[in-house]
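Input/output pair, single chain:
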Amino acid sequence: MTTDHMAAPERVDPSTTADERQALEQWLDYHRATLAAKCAGLTDEQVRTASAPPSDLSLLGLVRHMAEVERGWFRRVLAGEEAPWLYATEEDFDRDLHVTPEDGYAEAYATWQDEIAHAREVAAERALDDLGAGVHRSGELFNLRWIYLHMIEEYARHNGHADLIRERIDGATGD
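Output:
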């Protein structure tokens, strides 16, 4: 059964004449919408479908992973917030990617969208050159520009995975 969250989101092509900040934000939003589009119209069972053995990578796992990634970079690194992991556990640090039959898309999608909304708020308060208030687990500091570029790269890589997974599920292709 599909849910309201499964409707295809609107994807807006980034402007070809935007300034640097607008371009970074538009490309990030474009890639966020691309992942949501890859999940649109599918059932919970379908979004839990693993890509190809032995990998258990799924569209649901990618959405949960990107919620964790948004949370990590924007809450922890940029804002310096103490934000616990959403899905990771002591026993399974990659729990975001390891989905079970009990895990559903509606919860993951809502969580992901909450993290995106918070990321936008936190980023809006800073200039591209501003260093994050938190320290990454590597011990390094990152400015907002680097975080935006990394997030675009992260989504682009995982959207490639999503393309292949979606095609395997129902044959749907496209960008």
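The chain has one domain: 14-170. The chain is about 50% helix and 0% strand.
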